[in-house]
Amino acid sequence: MPIQIIREDITKLRCDAIVNAANNSLLGGGGVDGAIHRAAGKGLLLECMKLKGCKTGQAKITGAYKLPCKYVIHTVGPVWRGGTNGEKELLESCYRESLQLAKEYECESVAFPLISSGVYGYPKDQALRVAIDVISAFLLENDMLVYVVIFDKAAYKISEKLFADIKEYIDDHYVETHTDAHFERMRGEQCSQILEAEEVCFETTFLDEPVTQQVEPVKELSLAMPKQVAKFSLEDKLGEIDESFSEMLLRKIDEKGMTDSECYKKANVDRKLFSKIRNNVHYSPSKTTAIAFAIALELNLEETKDMLMKAGFALSHSNKFDLIIEYFIQSGNYNIFEINEALFMFDQSLLGM
Ligand code: AR6
């Protein structure tokens, strides 16, 4: 099952468990901890008092009281002290232990805030990297829907270099679209057709011949089309039906020597959706799902376009989403979670699900 990065107040989520970025006392505090305790009510504090605190990197579970979820998993992230004091290992441990508890309590869905990235000062981009790495490793072995909740997007940023590279790519290619050679050629061709027609008319006035005769070539051009189409019956056309999206996907999985589950997990797509696609040769996936599979299969740009075409989509240079996808494929970076971080950063739909 997949990871979803969302922008929400975690206290509003109706999933099985939400994770609290607590302190060692487990008796409440500021940030997300304060919000969770306020929304849950006194009952949560009373239960937390019985837990006798929690060590950094560990996790404990309680009921959720007035919250819309079933459980709250309390974990204590490390305070950032420059990154050389075992912060990363402790933060990894927070995610691992919380996921383990969620699994023990048979949670099907769990939501994490970006632990340690507020009051405890862990750099947000690095905190997100740790979250995604640990969660995706866990999901290779387990089925669960995991939300990573980004609360304050303004303060959150993906690596500045990656951001700058993507932005440059978008800017360059937007420009390319507007001075696009193909577009120019098309426009040129249209212009010369008009000019040709005008020339004919111009000559006609000189030759003083009937106008209808002069425009005939243009008419012939437009009448030729229906005649050609009429040569094929609809049945003939349907007989030429090409490989479907589902067929291409299954063929590529085999060619790459992957198992189905390796592929859908890498695509951040859940098992149920994959089996729908597998069992329906004419399944029409959404564009984000189709791209997710192209990424999981590490297809190059041409193959990706081909696969998208099977699902009735294209990649254009006229929107940011497509350009970000193209940027990652061209860079040979097929990490769907990094792609999703970037898409999130640029306010675009995320891949998978
Ligand atoms: N929903 C989702 N995320 C939130 C919410 C919310 N309602 N509120 C804040 N965040 P922090 P820490 C984000 O400071 O760094 C407390 O006092 C926030 O934007 O809550 O682990 C505890 O008692 C940030 O990205 O936790 C501890 O003493 C992330 O949650 C200390 O803070 C974590 O920020 C723990 O510090």
Spatial order of strands in the largest sheet = 1-6-5-2-4-3
What is the CA-atom radius of gyration, in angstroms?
Answer: 28 Å
Strand percentage lies at 5-15%
Q: Largest sheet at a glance?
A: 6 strands, mixed
Describe this structure in words.
By secondary structure, the protein is an alpha/beta fold. The chain has 2 domains: 3-157, Leucine Aminopeptidase, subunit E, domain 1; 160-180 and 243-353, no CATH class. Helices cover 55% and strands 9% of the residues. The protein has helices at 31-40, 42-49, 87-104, 124-141, 160-178, 181-207, 211-229, 234-239, 245-255, 260-266, 271-279, 287-296, 301-310, 320-330, 336-345; strands at residues 3-6, 17-22, 59-63, 71-76, 109-113, 145-149. A 6-stranded mixed beta sheet has the order 1-6-5-2-4-3, with helices on both faces. Helix 5 (160-178) crosses helix 14 (320-330). Residues 179-227 have low confidence and may be disordered. The protein binds ligand AR6.
Layout of SSEs?
Layout (H helix, E strand, L loop, with lengths): L2 E4 L10 E6 L8 H10 L1 H8 L9 E5 L7 E6 L10 H18 L4 E5 L10 H18 L3 E5 L10 H19 L2 H27 L3 H19 L4 H6 L5 H11 L4 H7 L4 H9 L7 H10 L4 H10 L9 H11 L5 H10 L8
Parallel strand pairs: 1-6, 2-4, 2-5, 5-6
Antiparallel strand pairs: 3-4
Helix pairs in contact: 3-4, 5-14, 6-7, 10-12, 12-13
Bound molecules: ligand AR6.
The site of ligand AR6 has 24 residues, from strand 2 and helix 1.
